[in-house]
Each structure stands twice: as structure tokens, then as C-alpha cells.
Amino acid sequence: MTLHIVNQSPYAGSALSDCLNALHPGDAVVLIEDGVYAVNDPRLSASADNSFCLGADAIARGVTVPESIETIDEARWVALCAEHNPIVSWFR
Amino acid sequence: MPRKSILAICRHAPYGNALAREGLEAILACAAMDQVPAVLLINDGVFLLLEQDAQQIGEKNLRRNLAALPMFGVETLHLCERSLRERGIDPAQLSLPGTELKLLQNPGAFIAGFDQVLSF
Amino acid sequence: MQFTLVIYGAPHASEGAATALRFARAVLASGHEIYRVFFYGDGIHNGSALAAPPQDEQDLLAQWQQLQQAHNLDLTLCIAAAQRRGVLSESEAKRLEKPAVNIAAGFTLAGLGQLAEAAALSDRVVTFGG
Amino acid sequence: MENLVIEGREIPLDKEGFLRNLGDWSPQVAEALAAQENIVLTEDHWDVIRLLQDFYREFELSPAMRPLVKYIDQHLGPEKGRSIFLMQLFPPSPAKIGSKIAGLPKPTNCL
């Protein structure tokens, strides 16, 4: 199962939608950096079964993460990377 | 070296971002090292296939670099059909000498089949 | 598990390298290993010895160097990307007839083959976009 | 590396013996560059030099060993499309030495 990492605000570019268009059932999505601005994006909840958000990046930006998305720390992010294969980054 | 299946995803348009050129360079280098990757052009990466005259802006022609892939052992290019349609490109009009162009309807399933992905 | 990190962002220009540093620490703290950190594109600027950020901002170079020393990390700058952007070792500066050397201690210049090799030999490759 | 002098005109070379100005290339310059590598150009050398230049025009890349072998195989046949053939012509590093003599850009030291 693929782990997708998105680091761009959905308002700034297409990284999130590009990612969601390449999602396979069971894949997971991790929002990091400006990607955390996507926590309330309806497309995310509609397409992704498993969504995660890097807590430090959300707190740093004053973004509140809804309960539908699991807030994770760096250790959990690493564990997700170990559990999934391959890992794809969507950026800029 | 142990065999790992490697996929290179190119999703940036040529010239506006160095990643289009440097991504291709990385693909050529992997292939020259006998780690021939599969290549997927998706999102703006499909623009690499357009006929182009980069001399106009003092750049080297990236479509020509792309055309070198078969010499390095990459004989198939995978294209995201949706990305082409969204950009008004008719897949039937595309060709690259020496290269088989394969359209993908479901890039997610394709990506999931690899061990490693290099994103450019 | 062996991780390879690929970094495209210049320090203080994009967040990628700082995020990668946090990720790298977490990888090591979780008992995994880092096979290589490969700096590509603008990411090669992370290996410039001449960066001098203000005292009240994070010093990414010093942090990479500390981590490198503590864990004997392989920090590789892509030589082609570095030549274009002007991060040179002593031998490259000599070969290319350039007036200065600015690669930081702890970093090495090497070819893209090192990325291919890392992709083949590590268990996971994680890209940190610019 | 000392500069070349061809018919009274000075052709500047860089430290590694590559042309500083690629526009200076001519068959005579190629002979002189080859002489610096202790190579006397034969018809086989010229076939490869022309193919190196064609490769560069076609792909805008200086070829690495593997693609060069494949390209030569396509144009001169399998007898010559072998690394041993190239090693004999342009030792010890055919892609690099051949590119230098053919007047292609200096490789980026990448591989």
C-alpha cells in the first residue's frame, strides 16, 4: 500500500488533487508543512480512507485538525513509512 | 545490486522548474547504473512530450533528452491519460521515436506496484 | 530498516530540509538506520559552508553536521546539481578553475549514481520536495 | 593543458584538455586533441566521432558508455557496437575521451 505525502496548500497548487487522483484503495495520505491547510478539504475526506496530519506543522500554523484525520508526531510518521511501500511525495 | 523495482514520476513542466531537467538526468543516471526505472509522466509532466523549440529561451530541448531514454534502456513511457485530457492533449497525436507510449487509466494501481518511487 | 532521504529544498528558502531533519531524527530514534541523505536540485545549498543565518534563527547546517557526527551519516550532494549552483570541493574547484571552495565539513559531492544505488539498496526512499 | 595552435591560430583548452569554446572544433582540431591523448585517428575513430556528434545533436546529451554502445550498434552494427571496440579506440574512458576529441561539452562528472 502506498503512502502519499502532500506538502502544499490546496489553495496554492494542485499537489493535493494530483495526489488524490492517483490514490489506490487502502493508500494513506500524510499532510505535512503547508499541506496541513488541507485538513478540512472535502475532497480529502471523500477520497482518502486513511488521512494523517503532522501535528507540529498544524500547531505551528494555528490549524485545528478535525477528528476524522489522525494527528501524528514524527515517530508515527516514520512508522507509517515503514508500514507502507512505496512512498510518494506530492509537492509544489 | 539487488533488484528493486523503481518508478520515476515526472510531474513538472519543462523549463519553469529545474526539476523537469534534473528529474530526467536522474532517470538517465539510474538507467546507466543498471537500475533502469519505469517512468510515469503525470500532471504537468506530460508537457515534456510536446514538440518544443527551447532555443527561443536559451534552454536545451528536454523532449530531445526524453527521446534519449531508449538508448539508456527505458523503452516504455507511461502516461497518465487523465492528465493529458485535462490539458487538452490528444493522446493519439503523441509520439516519441523508439519509445512505446502506454496510457494509464489508473495511475494509483500502477504506482502501488513498485518498491521505490522517485518523485520529480 | 534502512531509509534514504532525498531533499530538494534550499535551507531558509523552503521548509523541506528542516522537515527532513526532524524526520531523520525520528528515523534514528525509532531504531531505524539512514542509508544516505541525498541532496538534489536546490537542496545542494544545504551543504554550503558559507551560510550565516541570524543568531535567533535555526542553524540548519550546524544541525546537519551534529547529526552527521553523532550517527556517521552519509550526506551526499549531487555533483552535477552542485556544479550548476556553485557548491564546490577543493578538487572540483581546481578541476573547474573556480576561485573558492565552499562545501561544508561532513558533506560529500558524488554522482547521481549514488541516488540510484540508494534506491536499490535501502528499504525506503522518502522525498522532501522544495 | 597547453593550448593548441592550428595554422597559427591559438585554440584555448581547459585544464583537462577540453575545448574552452566548442565552436573552435574542426577535423584538424580533433587530430590535435587526439594527439594529446596519444591517439592517431583512423577511419574507425572518425566513424565514432561522427556518431558522438550525431548523438549530441539528436539528444542534446554527451553520451555515457552504455547508450553510446547502443547507438553505435544501431548505426555501425553489432560488430562495432561493443565496449571493447570503443576501449581500443579511446582508452581508458571512451565516453569521456571520445567526447573531448569530438568537441562535445565536458561531462558533468556525474557517473
UniProtKB/TrEMBL annotation, chain A:
Cross-referenced InterPro entries = DsrEFH-like (IPR027396), Sulphur_relay_TusB/DsrH (IPR007215)
Record gene name: dsrH
Q: What is this protein called?
A: Sulfurtransferase complex subunit TusB
Q: Which organism is it from?
A: Microbulbifer harenosus
From TrEMBL, chain B:
Q: Enumerate the UniProt keywords alphabetically.
A: Transferase
UniProt family annotation: Belongs to the DsrF/TusC family.
EC number of the protein: 2.8.1.-
Q: Gene3D superfamilies recorded for this chain?
A: DsrEFH-like
Q: Which gene encodes it?
A: tusC
- List the Pfam families: DsrE
Please name the GO terms that the record assigns under molecular function. transferase activity
Q: Identify the species of origin.
A: Microbulbifer harenosus
Q: Does the keyword Zinc-finger apply?
A: no
Q: What class of enzyme is it?
A: transferase
**Protein name from the UniProt record:** Sulfurtransferase complex subunit TusC
From TrEMBL, chain C:
Molecular functions per Gene Ontology: transferase activity
Keywords from UniProt, A to Z, are: Cytoplasm, Transferase
Q: Does the keyword Cytoplasm apply?
A: yes
* Subcellular compartments: Cytoplasm
Which parts of the chain are coiled coil? none
Q: What is its EC number?
A: 2.8.1.-
InterPro entries given in the database record: DsrEFH-like, Sulphur_relay_DsrE/F-like, Sulphur_relay_TusD/DsrE
The protein's predominant localisation is cytoplasm
Q: Which family does it belong to?
A: Belongs to the DsrE/TusD family.
Return the protein name: Sulfurtransferase complex subunit TusD
Report the gene name: tusD
From TrEMBL, chain D:
Instruction: Note the InterPro entries from the entry.
Output: DsrC-like_C, DsrC-like_dom_sf, DsrC-like_N, DsrC/TusE
**Domain of life of the source:** Bacteria
**What does the UniProt keyword field contain?**
Cytoplasm, Transferase
PANTHER family (alphabetical): SULFURTRANSFERASE TUSE
Source species: Microbulbifer harenosus
Task: Write the Enzyme Commission number(s) for this entry.
Answer: 2.8.1.-
**Protein name in UniProt:** Sulfurtransferase
Q: Can you tell me which family this protein belongs to?
A: Belongs to the dsrC/tusE family.
> Major location, coarse class?
cytoplasm
Q: Which SUPFAM superfamilies match?
A: DsrC, the gamma subunit of dissimilatory sulfite reductase (SSF69721)
| Role this protein plays | Part of a sulfur-relay system.
| Localization annotation | Cytoplasm
